[in-house]
């Protein structure tokens, strides 16, 4: 199974970039994993929130294949403990051809992206910056990979 993380806008904090790159490299030892960054829209001050979500949504949808299993990282999504996420990921590895996670722009996802999604996951009830979620999510994917393999990274 190939796994893709689509994110809107580049990560700018050098510490987050270093951490994300480290986890992406580590994940690559367990499964094919790629991060695709959709450039931020230009001149957004002339757009409403809804117009911005629609434009970003079109860019996200262009990256998707018909057979993709699409999971949105969304504050209203299902929450799981790390072990539950690992079991969920392990099950997806058996059933999905390509698993695509998406982190939206500052206003979230368009209605069209929500309609296309198969599931929504939330990493916390707390609010985090989009930059921070990228680091947190890649760490959790790495943690899930080590749990699946029975490695000692995760402690109960």
Q: What can be said about the biggest beta sheet?
A: 5 strands, parallel
In whole angstroms, the N-to-C terminal distance is 27 Å
**What assembly state would you assign to the polypeptide chains in this entry?**
single chain
Helix and strand run: EHEHEHEHEH
Q: Structural class given helices, strands, pairing?
A: alpha/beta
Strand content: 15-25%
Give the % helix.
40-55%
Mean pLDDT: 95
In short:
This protein is of the alpha/beta class and 156 residues long. Helix content is 43%, strand content 22%.
Can you put this structure into words, describing what you see?
This protein has 156 residues and is of the alpha/beta class. It has 5 helices and 5 strands; from the N terminus they run βαβαβαβαβα. A 5-stranded parallel β-sheet has the order 2-1-4-3-5. α3 crosses α5. The protein is globular and about 50 Å long. The mean pLDDT is 95.
Helix and strand layout, with pairings?
Layout: E1 2-8, H1 14-27, E2 33-38, H2 49-62, E3 69-79, H3 82-95, E4 98-103, H4 111-116, E5 119-122, H5 130-148
Parallel strand pairs: 1-2, 1-4, 3-4, 3-5
Helix pairs in contact: 1-5, 3-5
Pick out its properties:
alpha/beta, 5-stranded parallel beta sheet, 156 residues, globular
């Amino acid at each position: 199974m190939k796994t893709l993380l689509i994110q809107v806008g580049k990560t700018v904090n050098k510490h987050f970039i270093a951490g994300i790159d480290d986890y992406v490299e580590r994940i690559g030892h367990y499964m094919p994993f790629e991060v695709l960054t959709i450039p931020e829209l230009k001149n957004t001050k002339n757009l409403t929130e809804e117009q911005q979500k629609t434009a970003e949504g079109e860019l996200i949808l262009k990256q998707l294949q018909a057979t993709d299993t699409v999971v949105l990282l969304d504050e209203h999504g299902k929450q799981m403990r790390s072990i539950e996420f690992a079991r969920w990921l392990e099950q997806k590895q058996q059933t999905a051809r390509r698993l695509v996670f998406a982190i939206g722009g500052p206003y979230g996802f368009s209605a069209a992206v929500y309609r296309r999604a198969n599931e929504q996951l939330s990493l916390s009830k707390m609010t985090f910056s989009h930059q921070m979620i990228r680091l947190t999510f890649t760490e959790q994917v790495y943690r899930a990979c080590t749990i699946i393999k029975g490695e000692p990274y995760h402690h109960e």
